[in-house]
């Protein structure tokens, strides 16, 4: 039986990396692999277990069709290695940290993907972004405004609120995946 792609999306600061780190062991126990992203910024690799490459290396990998999924966002290039196709073919579910803007393209390649939108209350998101210190208050407010507009454009996804404790978010993620397990 073919595995399923689980496509985690959400605004920067919603806690995707923290959720993935906290859920890694229980997901592995359920046979779900977390794909490691390739990103063209080393600072991003600190926040997640990503593989950092130069823009030139990314372009070479993309030209060699090393990626199953690849997109650009916020001035960076992101890729998910093509090895996920072998994992899926072997019946393993694969969770990727994706992009809201690339969801339609990902669905074209993986029509049965399960999109999970990680949300967080605006005040909590604002506080997390401010505490992270990567952006000015004006940039944060612009990001929050874009996020509010973008959330209304999405459909056909499962919403997972990460405003409370990380432990409760991990439990809810596992519950959602169990509820939406493919029947074969």
Automatic annotation (TrEMBL):
User: At which positions is ATP bound?
Assistant: 10-17
Q: Name one GO biological process term.
A: organic phosphonate metabolic process
EC number of the protein: 2.7.4.23
This enzyme catalyses: alpha-D-ribose 1,5-bisphosphate + ATP = 5-phospho-alpha-D-ribose 1-diphosphate + ADP
UniProt keyword ATP-binding, yes or no: yes
A Pfam family per the record: Guanylate_kin
Domain spans labelled Guanylate kinase/L-type calcium channel beta subunit: 2-181
One term under GO cellular component: cytosol
The UniProt keywords, alphabetically, are: ATP-binding, Kinase, Nucleotide-binding, Transferase
Question: What is a GO molecular function of this protein?
Answer: ATP binding
Q: What pathway annotation does it carry?
A: Metabolic intermediate biosynthesis; 5-phospho-alpha-D-ribose 1-diphosphate biosynthesis; 5-phospho-alpha-D-ribose 1-diphosphate from D-ribose 5-phosphate (route II): step 3/3
Has the keyword Kinase been applied to this entry?
yes
* Broad class of enzyme this protein falls into: transferase
Domain of life, per UniProt, equals Bacteria
Say what the protein does: Catalyzes the phosphorylation of ribose 1,5-bisphosphate to 5-phospho-D-ribosyl alpha-1-diphosphate (PRPP).
The family this protein is said to belong to: Belongs to the ribose 1,5-bisphosphokinase family.
Name of this chain's protein: Ribose 1,5-bisphosphate phosphokinase PhnN
Organism equals: Stutzerimonas degradans
- Organism classification: Bacteria, Pseudomonadati, Pseudomonadota, Gammaproteobacteria, Pseudomonadales
Gene for this chain: phnN
């Amino acid at each position: 039986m073919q595995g399923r792609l689980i496509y985690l999306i959400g605004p920067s600061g919603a806690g995707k990396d923290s959720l993935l780190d906290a859920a890694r062991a229980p997901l592995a126990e359920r046979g779900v692999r977390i794909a490691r992203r390739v990103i063209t910024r080393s600072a991003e690799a600190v926040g997640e277990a990503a593989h950092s490459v130069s823009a030139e290396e990314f372009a070479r990998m993309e030209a060699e069709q090393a990626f199953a999924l690849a997109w650009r966002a916020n001035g960076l290039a992101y890729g998910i290695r093509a090895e996920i196709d072998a994992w899926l073919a072997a019946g393993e579910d694969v969770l990727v940290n994706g992009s809201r803007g690339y969801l339609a393209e990902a669905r074209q390649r993986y029509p049965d993907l399960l999109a999970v939108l990680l949300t967080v209350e605006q005040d909590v998101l604002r506080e997390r972004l401010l505490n992270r210190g990567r952006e000015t208050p004006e940039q944060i407010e612009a990001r929050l405004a874009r996020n509010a507009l973008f959330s209304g454009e999405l459909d056909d996804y499962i919403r997972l609120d990460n405003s409370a404790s990380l432990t409760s978010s991990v439990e809810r993620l596992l519950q959602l995946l169990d509820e939406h397990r493919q029947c074969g």
